[in-house]
Each structure stands twice: as structure tokens, then as C-alpha cells.
Design brief:
Radius of gyration: 24 Å
Shape: rod-shaped
Distance between the termini: 55 Å
Helix content: over 70%
Largest sheet: none
Number of strands: 0
Structural class: mainly alpha
Order of helices and strands: HHHH
Oligomer: single chain
Number of domains: 2
Amino acid sequence: MLENKINDLKNMSLQKKRAFIVDFCLNQKLKKNKNQINSQFKNVSILDFFINSLSEDYKKIFIVDFIKNENNPYW
């Protein structure tokens, strides 16, 4: 089975080999980035992630209006 795949790769045209290599490299890069992103999400709460995604002005408004001035600031 593995030998068949290797033979298929050997018989490909140069253009198809290049496309295969590019696809393979992109796939590996996506897997690596996905693992890094998943590990970052585990360390950050959803509220922190949301607040960090806001611009500075909106972040200040959210913190002042919805957290500090809220009667029941339980999050």
C-alpha cells in the first residue's frame, strides 16, 4: 500500500509534485498553528478572550459600564 503511494508520487509530473509538496507543507503548518491556538484558548477564559478582542475604547466602555458600574457584577 505504501509502495503504491510512493510509486504514484514518482510517476507524477513535476507540476503535480510541486502542488503536492505545497499542499503537504500547508497542511503541516495548519496543524501546527491549530495546536498552538488550541493551547492558547485553554489558558484564556472566554470573557478574557472577548475583552482582548475589543479595541481600547470599547474595552474601556465594557469594563466601566458592564463590570464596574453593574449592580450585580457576577461574571
